[in-house]
Amino acid sequence: MKIIDWFGRIFTKSQKTVILSEYRNDLQNSIALESFALFTTIEMIASLIAKCEFKTYKSNKEFKGYEWYSLNVKPNKNQNSTAFWQETISKLLFYGEVLIVNVSNQLIIADDFQKDEFAVKENEFTQVSRGDMTFSRKFKMSDVLYLRYSNNDAMSIINNIFCMYEKLIESASDKYIKAGGQKGILEISALAQGDKDFEKRYTKLTNEQFKSYFKEKNAVLPLWEGMKFVPTTSDSAKKTTNEITDISKLVDDAMSRAAQAFKVPPALVRGDVAGIKDAVDMLLTVCIDPLADMIGEELTGKKFSPDEVINGQYIGVDTTCIKHIDIFDIAADVDKLISSSLLSPDEARVKAGLNLTGEEWAQKHYMTKNYSNSESGDLNENE
Question: So what's the pLDDT on residue 19?
Answer without folding.
Answer: 41
